Amino acid sequence: MNEEVKSAVRVLEMLELLARSTRPVSLKEVALELGYPKSSAHQLLATLVSRGYAMREDGERYRLNEACRSGPGWTGGGDAQLIALAQPVMRQLRDQCGETVLLGVRMRDGRLKTIAKCVGSMPVRYDSELAGGLPSYCTALGRVLLAYWDPVLTDRHLARERIVRLTDHTTVDRVRIRSLIQDARREGFAISDQEMDADGCGVAAPIYDAGGTVVAALDIAVVAQRFASRKQSLLDLVVAHARTISARNGFRPEAHGEAGA
Fold this sequence. Notes:
By secondary structure, the protein is α+β, with helices and mostly antiparallel strands. It folds into two domains: about 5-65, Orthogonal Bundle (Arc Repressor Mutant, subunit A), CATH 1.10.10; about 70-255, Beta-Lactamase. Helix content is about 45%, strand content about 20%. It contains ten helices and eight strands. It is elongated and about 60 Å long. About 40% of the residues are buried.
């Protein structure tokens, strides 16, 4: 007896189609290739987009979320939904500044996981693979995420974390690291200047959920030779776009006092 569920089969067939496609595909192409009514194909694609498994491009074209292709999106439904909310804003930010834009979340152990990126358009640009288990103490993303975590858990993380000098610029003094994390909480952003990667700099700001909890951080990553002259403008941009993503995520600053200030 065939125990396949028709709706589940259709979802899997659509995911398989998106996974093997080398370019974004149109609604018409999906319906024709899979033999679905156009209305049904549209509903299924809309569901995949809302859950973060697919991304909608301009011109009614669809592609698989790259986070799903490379790993993190399949295992974290919350991450996938956050990526779906954030990526249009990330692309807008990338197009505005020309630099690479990253989205990161804190892992249970306090380390950093990058879950989405939009690679910059500059001829010389910063890039990195999406990955988990990255150090938080020396990255702008990580410092923001530690700054808005439970202070007790942040202290425990820093006490047990192995602090390594990754570059000549890495801050390794634990007192100074704690001070930088406190600065990130007070100022609403963090900076890493060639501490994680030689010649790579980053500025990051928090992303809130509807309850006022910081659930992610947005980062602009830039090569060092452009950083000094662009630092303030990049800070302004990353803070503004992080607020936009927070608003899309249901956050209302006025409901949480100083949380969104």
